[in-house]
Specification:
Blueprint (H helix, E strand, L loop, with lengths): L6 E3 L2 E3 L3 E3 L14 H11 L5 E8 L11 E2 L6 H12 L4 E7 L15 E2 L3 E7 L3 E9 L2 H21 L3 E5 L5 H6 L14 H4 L1 H11 L5 E8 L8 H14 L3 E6 L15 H10 L4 E3 L5 H9 L5 E4 L1 H5 L3 H6 L14 H6 L29 E5 L3 H12 L3 E6 L8 H4 L6 H16 L3 E4 L5 H6 L4 E4 L3 E3 L11 E2 H5 L8 E5 L3 H12 L3 E5 L11 H13 L3 E3 L2 E7 L2 E6 L2 E6 L2 E4 L3 E3 L3 H4 L7 E4 L9 H12 L3
Parallel strand pairs: 3-4, 3-14, 4-5, 4-6, 6-10, 7-9, 10-11, 11-12, 12-13, 13-14, 15-16, 15-18, 16-17, 18-29, 20-27, 21-22, 21-27, 22-23
Antiparallel strand pairs: 1-2, 8-9, 19-28, 24-25, 25-26
Helix pairs in contact: 1-2, 2-3, 3-6, 13-15, 13-21, 18-19
C-alpha cells in the first residue's frame, strides 16, 4: 500500500506516509511533560506511523488554549520535551511539535491568558459543546507582533534542541494566524492589514524566522472554508505559495467550518483543498479531514497528497496501522465522529479526551487477569451487551449472549439507518464481528427467563436490556408513531411530518425524513434543539435541517393532539401545527430488569450496564460495559 511507502520532507526521510495529527491530551502539568503524556505518545508511536506531531505547545506564557497544554516558551520545558522525543523516536517515527498561539481565542478561563488579536474585538468561545461566552481581545501593537515572531523563532530553536525533526505552525482553525488572514477579523491599516500580502505578512515573517533556527517548519492552513470567512480560494493558494517561498517544508491542508468534522459531513472533506495545493506547490502536501485508511491510500495513489494525517482514528484505535499491515483491516475499530474526545477537551473544565468506542484511551493500568474461567451470561445485544460480551470473552471467559431480536445491535440499528450515520454503521458492523471472533455464543431471537439463565450455572450475569421509547402524557398521543420505528421501516412517515421532540433522536429523524423528501417540522419544548449534541455536530445538524427546509418551533408546549392537528403554546401563544404523520421522539425509558436482578439471591454476580440503568449515549453504554467485563 502507498500508505506504507517512505517519503521525504525537507530532505528528511519519513518511514511511511501516515501522520499522527496533533490532538491535545490535556496531560501536561503547568506546561511540563508528564509521565502520563509520555505513555500516551508511546502508545501512538508503537503503531509505527511515519510522523508523530505532538500536540500544540504554547509559545507565549499568556496564550494557552487549555489548562493541560504543553508549553515551549521557556528553556525550562526543553528537558521534558527531549525525553518525550526520545521515547517516540525509539519506536521508529519522525517527530514534530505544533507551535500554537490562540490569539483572540485564548480563553480567559485559563489563568494568566491575555487574548490579543490583529484588531480589538469580541470572540465567541465555546465550552462543553453546549455553552458559549464572549472574550474581548485587545489589538496587538506593531512591537508586540515583532515580539511574537521572535517567540515563535525561539520556540522553534528549543524544539530543535529537544530533538524534534520539524515544527508545525497552526496557521488555521481560528487561531492567531487565521485572525490575521481574514479581513473580517483583521481591520488593521498598517503593513499587517488590508491586502492579502499584508494579512499574511505575520505568517511569512514567522516562517522565515523559524527556518533560520535550522528546523523545517510545516504549516497547517485552512485550504477549504478558512476560519472567519472573507478569504478567497485564490488568496488561499497565494498564501500557500508565499509560505513555500518563505521556507515552509510542507503544507497541511485542513479547513472549516468544522476542522474536526462531525459525522454529518462527508469523509475526506478537505481532500479537494489538498489536491489544489498539490497542483500549485513543489513541497509536500499533507491531507487531513475524516480520512479512513482506504480513502487515504486512494488519495496518495491518485496524487492528491504526499502524506495523510489522522487524529481521531488514532484515538478510536491506536493500533490500526499494525492491524492494516497484518492484513486485518476488519479488526480496526472505526471512529464514529461523535467528537466526544473534542467535546471533553473544550468542556468547561477542559477534561482530557475520552473516546466513546475506545474505553482504554488514556488508561495506563491494565485490568488484572482473571483468576479463573467464569461462565458469563449477557442479556441484551445492543452496544453495551456486545461490548461486555466481547471483553469478557477476550479475557478468556465462557460467554453466552442473549438477544431477543434476530440481529445484534439494539438501538444502534435505528441509530445507523440514516445515510449520514455511516461511521456509526461501520462501528456496529465492527462490534458484531468482534463478538463472534471472540468466541461468544450468541443466541438470537431469545429472551431468556431467569430459570433458563440459572440452568447455565453462570458465575456472572450482565444485564444490558437497553431502553424503549417513552410516551409523553399528552391527550391524543396514540396517533403518533415512534421515531425508532420510522428509522427501521416498521412505521411510515409520509406527507407533512411533525416530529415531537427536538433532541438527538428527533433532529436526526427529521433530517432522515427531509432527505427522503418529506415536509418536516420539529416541535420542541426547550429554547433550542439538539442541545444534547457536541457543538460542531449540533451546528452542522441544525444547518442541514434548515438547508433542507425543516421548520423548527422551540419553546413549544404541546397541549393536545387531534386528528391532523397538534395544538400547543409557542412562546406562550396558542398555535396549531398540521400533520399527516406525527413522529414521537420524546426520549427513552429503561427496560425493566427486576426479574433478573433477583438472580443475585442465588449467589450470582449481577450487573447492569447501559440504557437499562438510565438512557444516555454510546459513551456511557460502552464504558460501563467495559468496566464491568474487565473486572470479571
Amino acid at each position: 500500500m502507498k500508505l506504507f511507502e517512505e517519503g521525504f520532507i525537507a530532505g528528511v526521510r519519513v518511514p511511511n506516509r501516515i501522520v499522527v495529527a496533533p490532538l491535545g491530551a490535556g496531560l501536561a502539568q503547568n506546561g511540563f511533560v508528564t509521565p502520563a503524556l509520555i505513555q500516551h505518545y508511546v502508545e501512538l508511536a508503537e503503531a509505527e506511523p511515519g510522523l508523530v506531531v505532538v500536540e500544540g505547545a504554547a509559545v507565549s506564557e499568556d496564550a494557552r488554549d487549555s489548562h493541560g497544554m504543553l508549553a515551549i516558551y521557556d528553556d525550562a520545558f526543553v528537558g521534558g520535551l527531549s525525553l518525550l522525543v526520545d521515547e517516540i523516536k525509539a519506536r521508529g517515527p519522525r517527530v514534530a511539535i505544533q507551535l500554537l498561539h490562540p490569539g483572540g481565542a485564548a480563553s480567559p478561563r485559563v489563568r494568566g491568558n491575555v487574548p490579543v488579536a490583529p484588531t480589538a474585538m469580541e470572540y465567541l468561545l465555546f465550552v462543553h459543546g453546549r455553552h458559549a461566552f464572549k472574550a474581548h481581545a485587545r489589538e496587538l501593537t506593531r512591537e508586540e507582533i515583532k515580539s511574537l515572531v521572535e517567540k515563535f523563532a525561539e520556540a522553534a530553536g528549543r524544539a530543535k534542541d529537544a530533538g524534534f525533526d520539524f515544527v508545525q505552525i497552526n496557521a488555521g482553525h481560528g487561531w492567531l494566524f487565521s485572525q490575521f488572514l481574514s479581513p473580517r477579523t483583521n481591520k488593521r491599516s498598517d503593513e499587517y492589514g488590508g491586502p492579502i500580502e499584508n494579512r499574511i505578512r505575520f505568517a511569512i515573517e514567522v516562517a522565515e524566522a523559524v527556518k533560520s533556527q535550522g528546523i523545517p517548519p510545516i504549516f497547517r492552513i485552512d485550504a477549504v472554508n478558512p476560519a472567519y470567512g472573507g478569504v478567497t480560494e485564490e488568496e488561499v493558494l497565494y498564501f500557500a505559495k508565499r509560505l513555500e517561498e518563505a521556507g515552509a517544508a510542507a503544507i497541511e491542508a485542513s479547513g472549516g467550518p468544522a476542522p474536526i468534522s462531525p459525522a454529518v459531513f462527508p469523509q475526506g472533506l478537505f481532500l479537494e483543498g489538498a489536491a489544489k495545493l498539490k497542483k500549485a506547490l513543489k513541497i509536500p502536501v499533507i491531507a487531513i479531514g475524516a480520512l479512513t485508511y482506504d480513502l487515504a491510500n486512494k488519495a496518495l495513489e491518485e496524487g492528491l497528497a504526499d502524506f495523510v494525517a489522522f487524529g481521531r482514528a488514532f484515538i478510536a484505535d491506536p493500533q490500526w496501522p499494525i492491524k492494516l499491515r497484518q492484513g486485518r483491516p476488519e479488526d480496526i475499530r472505526p471512529c464514529v465522529r461523535c467528537n466526544e474526545c473534542i467535546d471533553r477537551g473544550f468542556s468547561l473544565r477542559q477534561l482530557p479526551p475520552k473516546c466513546a468506542v475506545n474505553p482504554q484511551l488514556l488508561r495506563f493500568t491494565k485490568p488484572k487477569p482473571p483468576t479463573r474461567v467464569k461462565t458469563v451470561v449477557v442479556v441484551g445485544g445492543g452496544p453495551a451487551g456486545m461490548e461486555a460480551a466481547r471483553v469478557a470473552a477476550e479475557r478468556g471467559h465462557r460467554v453466552v449472549l442473549y438477544e431477543q431480536s434476530h440481529q445484534l445491535g439494539g438501538n444502534l440499528i435505528p441509530a445507523t439507518a440514516s445515510p449520514f450515520k455511516q461511521d456509526l454503521r461501520r462501528y456496529l458492523e465492527w462490534l458484531r464481528r468482534q463478538v463472534y471472533k471472540a468466541g461468544v455464543e450468541v443466541r438470537l431471537g431469545t429472551r431468556p427467563t431467569p430459570e433458563e439463565i440459572l440452568s447455565q450455572r453462570p458465575d456472572a450475569v450482565i444485564l444490558a436490556l437497553g431502553s424503549e421509547p417513552a410516551t409523553p402524557n399528552i391527550p391524543g398521543i396514540e396517533q403518533g408513531v415512534y421515531a425508532i420505528d420510522v428509522l427501521v421501516g416498521k412505521a411510515k412517515a409520509q406527507g407533512r411530518v411533525v416530529v415531537l421532540g427536538g433532541g438527538r433522536v428527533g433532529g436526526e429523524t427529521a433530517l432522515h425524513l427531509a432527505l427522503e423528501g418529506a415536509q418536516v417540522a420539529i416541535v420542541e419544548i426547550l429554547p433550542d434543539i439538539m442541545t444534547d449534541l457536541e457543538r460542531s455536530y449540533r451546528l452542522a445538524m441544525v444547518g442541514e435541517l434548515k438547508r433542507r427546509g425543516v421548520s423548527i418551533y422551540t419553546n413549544f408546549h404541546t397541549v393536545e393532539i387531534r386528528p391532523g392537528r397538534l395544538y400547543g403554546l409557542h412562546n406562550g401563544n396558542p398555535m396549531e401545527v398540521p400533520f399527516d404523520t406525527l413522529v414521537i421522539a420524546t426520549g427513552m425509558r429503561p427496560r425493566d430488569t427486576a426479574p433478573y436482578r433477583a438472580l443475585a439471591k442465588h449467589g450470582i454476580e449481577v450487573y447492569e450496564v447501559g440504557d437499562c440503568i438510565k438512557p444516555r449515549n454510546l459513551y456511557a453504554a460502552v464504558h460501563e460495559a467495559y468496566n464491568v467485563a474487565s473486572r470479571l
